[in-house]
């Protein structure tokens, strides 16, 4: 029997807004608090509700694996209210966002100011295996995502699994499931807030779909 995985990114978060505004105004930003504690914005909550309506179309999931980060949990809770079903739900730490370590909460301008030369071309370097101090590379994310995927293939064949997580996790799922080289996955970014991606076995059916969010901003 074929494993069907639907992966969604959380709705717009407070850090998404802060970083977008910093990019627009070209200023350095360093967010306080833990990345895992960042919440959804009002728009993010609206997106999560729209996501729930989209997931309610067709066969609902019978197993949900959710990142323990607050923004992912909030997204699932709001989406679940629209489903009309009660699937098995597990918080899965291996589906957390890419850990930027001591660089967490800093936008590129802040990184350049604090670590001249070290943070140049950071995204490309993360795909290439670079780890920020006490943090992770995208290969590290791929390794933990692969563990989860192998467990699903071995123990949950035939189930409809929903993964509620982050852009880095969705991209690494594409790498792991489809066998796309990790350096090539960057071409599929950015993954939109509250977007939907679906794999049936090793075949991609949908990737980064946001049509259900018409009428709202998707980032």
Question: Can you describe this structure?
Answer:
The structure is a single chain. This protein has 219 residues and is α/β, with parallel strands linked by helices. It has 7 helices and 6 strands. It has one domain (4-213): Rossmann fold (3-Layer(aba) Sandwich), CATH 3.40.50. Helix content is 38%, strand content 15%. A hairpin with a 2-residue loop joins strand 5 and strand 6 (203-209). Helix 2 crosses helix 3 (70-83) and helix 6 crosses helix 7. The mean pLDDT is 95. This is Histidine phosphatase family protein. InterPro entries: His_Pase_superF_clade-1, His_PPase_superfam, PGM_Phosphatase.
Distance between the termini: 36 Å
Strand content: 5-15%
How many domain modules? 1
Overall shape: it is globular
CATH class: Alpha Beta
Mean of all residue-level pLDDT scores: 95
- Total E-strand runs: 6
For the biggest sheet, the summary is: 6 strands, mixed
CATH architecture: 3-Layer(aba) Sandwich
The CATH fourth-level homologous superfamily: Phosphoglycerate mutase-like
- From the 3D structure, determine the CATH topology: Rossmann fold
Rounded Rg? 17 Å
Q: Determine the number of helices (DSSP H or I, runs of at least 4 residues).
A: 7
Q: What class do helices, strands and sheet pairing give?
A: alpha/beta
Residue stretches low in confidence (pLDDT < 50, at least 5 long) are: none
């Amino acid at each position: 029997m074929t494993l069907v995985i639907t992966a969604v990114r959380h709705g717009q978060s407070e850090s998404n807004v802060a970083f977008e505004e910093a990019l627009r105004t070209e200023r350095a930003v360093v967010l306080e608090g833990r990345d895992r504690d960042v919440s959804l914005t009002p728009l993010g909550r609206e997106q999560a509700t729209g996501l729930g309506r989209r997931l309610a179309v067709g066969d609902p999931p019978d197993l949900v694996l959710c990142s323990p980060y607050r923004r992912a949990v909030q997204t699932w809770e709001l989406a679940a209210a629209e489903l009309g079903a009660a699937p098995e739900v597990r918080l899965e730490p291996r589906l957390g966002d890419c850990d930027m370590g001591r660089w967490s909460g800093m936008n590129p301008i802040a990184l350049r100011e604090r670590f001249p030369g070290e943070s140049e071309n950071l995204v490309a370097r993360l795909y290439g295996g670079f780890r920020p101090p006490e943090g992770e590379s995208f290969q590290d994310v791929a390794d933990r995502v692969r563990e989860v995927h192998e467990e699903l293939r071995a123990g949950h064949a035939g189930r409809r699994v929903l993964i509620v997580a982050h852009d880095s996790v969705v991209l690494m799922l594409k790498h792991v499931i489809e066998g796309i080289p990790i350096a090539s996955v960057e071409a599929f970014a950015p993954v939109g807030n509250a977007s939907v991606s679906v794999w049936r076995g090793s075949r991609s059916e949908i990737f980064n779909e946001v049509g259900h969010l018409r009428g709202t901003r998707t980032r």
